[in-house]
């Protein structure tokens, strides 16, 4: 009976240890972006989108007027990444683009809007 209680106590302690080690609050579990919408002025500009991911993310855009630069570490070890974005000048009406950020098996779309010079 004494060994049975000791065995059960050991199993409970091992289960608690495994449960506490399986969840990590120090970093993202998949992929997070700082913003899901961004705005650029008609004159064109550069901005950086901050991304949290345990693996280096990739960025691609569906518009020729919006360029996504090389993703680089942005502090806090290797879980914070900066995605440099540059929008060219827009002399016409407002326009939108979708920036897709992906890492591992996750992806997030960010809506990019640029004001037009004609407005």
UniProtKB/TrEMBL annotation:
Give the domain of life.
Bacteria
Q: Supply the Pfam families for this chain.
A: BACON
Asked if the record carries the keyword DNA repair, the reply is no
**Domain BACON: from-to ranges:** 61-114
Print the keywords alphabetically: Signal
Keyword Signal in annotation: yes
What protein am I looking at?
A: BACON domain-containing protein
Q: PROSITE patterns, per this entry?
A: PROKAR_LIPOPROTEIN (PS51257)
Task: From the UniProt annotation, give the residues forming the signal peptide.
Answer: 1-24
